[in-house]
Amino acid sequence: MYDINIENLSVYYGPVCALQNINLKVKSNEILGIMGPNGGGKTTLLKTILKIIKPTEGKVSIKGDSSIGYVPQFTVFNRSFPINVLDVVLMGKLSRKIKWFQKYSFKDKKDAEELINKLGLLELKNRQIGQLSGGQLQKVLIARALITDPKILILDEPTANLDTKAKKEIHEMLKKLSENKTILIVTHEMKDIFPYIDTAAYVNKTLHYYENPQKLKSEIFEKTYGYSIGTINKEKVIDKKITGHKEDEDDQRII
Ligand SMILES: Nc1ncnc2c1ncn2[C@@H]1O[C@H](COP(=O)(O)OP(=O)(O)O)[C@@H](O)[C@H]1O
Ligand SMILES: [Mg+2]
Questions:
Q1: Does this entry carry the keyword Transmembrane helix (predicted)?
Q2: Quick check: is 110 in a domain?
Q3: Which end of the chain has fewer CB within 10 Å, C or N?
Q4: How confident is the model over 103-152, as pLDDT tens digits?
């Protein structure tokens, strides 16, 4: 039932504690929105799930060792490098193959074209990456992460610096993909993301999980504006005061 199960996870960088005693279960085909201040440990959490970082304590289990696609937070790309969209998507196959000199097979190319088509990017297929808008490039990087057809897709701030239209397109794309994929998305797009996510997590060294993301939305609203959204009832506000976590001024600005 759970694609990802994290138990009592702590991660330290030397003496710096990035994550402290985290528990998290992610259901199959769920979209989990991960939020929290800069430096809160969101990227560390994703990298631990990806096994790029080793837990200091605790463990991360992935169901049946499902494959994971990853769209990193900052993709270092020389935009003037002469490479087109199809080539970038095909690069997603390379990491699996290790044999860097190996040419792509006919099937690889066919898979890439099919995926590009499915994601509505066919007209960009032969476009040089330097000629893409930020939103288009991000979609191509998502396609690159999807080329091996992973069960789990992990995206680290994929819509940062994009305009509202591009954000919406990417969110719609993820919603469609979640029909048969489990998706974890780190985002600062508080306003835009809520209609698209099933559950939410707030990460600031510790992790608060929200079965109902609207509760997190209300808490953030209240923390930012000092009063609750009309629909939130008194009980919830009281509950928040008891169990809620106070962040410092800095965090409020980031949110
Ligand atoms: N490679 C690293 N070495 C040392 N400290 C790191 C490293 N990566 C991240 N950190 C620290 O761990 C904390 C969490 O960082 P990060 O996971 O990148 O947070 P976020 O993605 O939420 O902004 C921060 O205090 C950051 O400075
Ligand atoms: Mg990060």
A1: no
A2: yes
A3: N
A4: 788 899 999 999 999 999 999 999 999 999 999 999 999 999 999 999 99
The domain in which residue 202 lies consists of: 2-212
Number of domains in the chain: 1
Residue 143 has which token pair? 């396609």
CATH number of the domain at 70, please. Answer: 3.40.50.300
Q: Which residue CA neighbors atom 9 of ligand 1 most closely?
A: 44
> How distant, in Å, are the alpha carbons of 16, 18, 22, 44, 250 from that of 246?
21, 18, 18, 22, 11
Atom of ligand 1 nearest to the CA of 46: 17
pLDDT for 247 equals 35
Give, as residue ranges, everything with CB less than 5 Å from ion ligand 2.
Answer: 42-43, 73
Q: How far is the CA of 79 from the centre of ligand 1 (A)?
A: 27
